[in-house]
Every structure is written in C-alpha cells, then in structure tokens.
Amino acid sequence: FRRNPGEAEFHQAVTEVFESLEAVSRKRPEYAEAAILQRMCEPERQIIFRVPWTDSEGRVQINRGFRVEFNSALGPYKGGLRFHPSVYLGIVKFLGFEQIFKNSLTGMPIGGGKGGSDFDPRGKTDAEVMRFCQSFMTELYRHIGEYTDVPAGDVGVGGREIGYLFGQYKRITNRYESGVLTGKGISWGGSLVRPEATGFGTVLFTQEMLKTRGMSFDGQRVVVSGSGNVALNAIAKAQTLGARVLTASDSSGYIVDERGIDIDLLRQIKEVERGRISEYAERAKSKRVHYVEGGTVWDVDSSVALPCATQNELDAKHAKRLIASGVVAVSEGANMPCTAAATSLFQDSGVLFAPGKAANAGGVATSALEMQQNASRDSWSFAHTEERLTEIMIGIHDRCASTADEYGVPGNYVAGANIAGFVKVADAMLAQGLI
Ligand code: NDP
Site described as Important for catalysis, positions (predicted)? Predict the structure, then answer.
C-alpha cells in the first residue's frame, strides 16, 4: 500500500483477491519463491499522457489519458477504456487488476489491462467527443496493436467513441487492423452480441447459480441499478427469462415500474436520445411508475439484485436492506459495485453472490470472439455467437463452483473466481521466467 499511496480502489481490489489466496499459497509454495503476488501487483507498463482538444467555443481543454498494461502472461493486454470525470490512476489500476483474473476465467488467450480518461462525455457534442477521441488516440496508438494491447469500451465509451478511436488509429498507422479495438460497429469488423454480452452474461451466470437451488428467473422480482450498456441488456435478458425487472437508475435517481420495465422505451431514452432516467416516468404515463430523485434501487423489495452501475454503489446498509427483503441472489454486472462489508453480509446470510470478475466476464469474452472473427476475416450469426457466450458463462460458473469445492469453501463464488483466475496466470508467469 505504501508503494501506491492514495489508490483506494486498487487497494480494495487487491485485498479482496489476496484474502482468497491463503489456501493456494499453502498448496503451492513455489508461487511465493517466485514472488508471483508482488509481481502481479506491479503493472508491466503504465502510460499517462496529456490529451489536448478544443471545445465548441474554441477553448483549449486538457484531460489526462491512461493505459495500464497490467499482465500479458496469457495473451495481449485486453480491457476497456473508461471516460468519466472520476477516472484517476487508482480506478484504472483497480479495473486493470480485476481484468487479469476475469480474462483468465474466460478461458480465452487474453492478458489484463485497462485505460481511460477523466474526460466527461456527458453534455458534449458529437464533434467535441470526436475531437477528444482523435487526440486521445494520437498518443495511444503507439502503445496498442492486435498482438500488443487491444482496448474496448467501458463507462462512457460505447460504439460512437470506438468508431472515432478506430478511425484515428487507421488514419495514423495507414493500417486497417481490425483486431486493434473491440466493440466495433457490425459493418466494419464488430461482432454481433458484443453490445449485449455483458448484461446477457450476468443474467446467464445468475441463472446457473439459481439452478443450484432448483430455481430460475421465472417469476423473480429483480432490481437493477444503472441504465447504461450493462444494465439495459441485463434487464432485457432477465425479462426474456420470465423475471419482472422493477428498476433502473442513473446518477441522478431511479425509476420503479411495478409492471416491469418497458425496455423499448428505456432504450429509446438512454441509447437513442441519450436522455435522463427521469424521462421514463414522465413518458410511461402510469400510476404504477414513479421516479425517485437521489436514493438507491436497493430500497425496493426484490428476490434478485443486479448492481450494474458503478463501483461501491451497494454498501452494508443496502445489503442488510436487501437481505431483509428476502433477496436470494446478487450478481455484480458492474465492476466491484459491492463494498467488502456488503459482500461478507451476503455470503454470511447464504445469499448466492457472484463477483463481477465472473458475472460480468461475458463482455470481454465476446470481445475475444470478435478478435477471433477479425483474425479469420469471418463474421458469425447472432445465434451462433450467443451460443458461444452461453457456453462460456456456464463454463465460468462451473469453474468457480468446482474450484470453491476443491479449496474447501463450497458455494463461495468469490474465492472460486479469484483462485481459478489466479492459478492459471501464476502458472503461465512461472513458465515464462522472471520478466
Ligand atoms: P455506461 O456508461 O453505459 O453506463 C453506466 C451507467 O451507470 C449510467 O446509466 C450511469 O448514469 C450509471 N451510474 C454511474 N454512476 C452511478 C451512480 N453513482 N448511481 C447510479 N447510477 C450510476 O457503462 P457500462 O454499462 O458499460 O458499465 C457499467 C459497469 O459495468 C461499470 O462498472 C463497468 O466497468 C462494468 N462493465 C462494463 C462492461 C461493458 O462491456 N460495457 C464489461 C464489464 C464490466 P449517468 O448517466 O448518470 O452517469
């Protein structure tokens, strides 16, 4: 912690993983001899750069850009870019660290990395976003590549931003290198199912957990936080499987729709118009729909909770509230949305709990499928790609569950995910020598 002062989220992510690894250290003393844990905490490379751009009034703006290339034991660095005013090195490192184990769990040949900027895309014009993305890529391009580092989207980076980033990469390098970014548009190298994959995957993982108790999504009352890429697709999939999803939120407040969220209306407001969640209540025109300014969706009674917005959005107080309302499963669609105290409360109360590095791995797994399609100059159908995603999510669930059994903590998906993800990376690092 002294080496990385002030990086609170990074400390939190490392602590959570290391707490799960005691049993591994006893079983595999060679990891300690090779200082595997210390090496894993130190990124292989960290890049911090200036991003100058001009706003619509002609004023010069300066943001800070980051790319943390954390671990390449299993493949090229892979992980998203986040554009949000809260981004600083501690956030990028927490996300990059988590990404190492998540990517390992998918079973695909991808290492871990993450990047982003403190740029706030909210309220910016398309032209401003484009100028920012072009400036960002003008520095980043020299560090990335199909065999080096393959960024994707995350908070604040969707199809529009990936398009501008890809265009600038192509222009600077004079190479149509499809495999340099994932999350591309379908007509220019993207993969079907990639936009849906994280939210769909979170629900598929939850379904596998529910099955272990003889349950399914059918008839469940589900609360979802957020209304971005992950939340929208989690809502859509849960409702397809027969659940009633009651909520969605943004950083201003949340809506409750007792009839079940109208996903077409929500997509229109959030994806097409880039509007606020409050508009849903105004346009739904039903007594069974209301908007709550501020507050949290965790105040709504539910049997399944899917936090899909941001880190540390669900704390011990919220966990107690959810447990009292009879929640049976909680799955992290977002990265680290539950605090350590909330996670412990769920586990101690026998709630099925899926950590983000397992439950939201469907996004990066489908990015790896996009890389496969780019490498073979092929494009797969929606049905085929969704089938692959389903197989991958079931595989991750089973790997977490069997590893938890093997290490004497049955049902503990946190330990299962951390240990299974770690061992594969650690063995590759041992094999590749002291680098
Ligand atoms: P988006 O930018 O598409 O959406 C984020 C959503 O969360 C927005 O609706 C945002 O609202 C909302 N939000 C942010 N802060 C809060 C808050 N404090 N309270 C309530 N809502 C809030 O991002 P994604 O959906 O892509 O990402 C969400 C999470 O999922 C992140 O943790 C991300 O790292 C993780 N994730 C994403 C993957 C992907 O494929 N996209 C893959 C794996 C993980 P507002 O508009 O007000 O900011």
Answer: 154
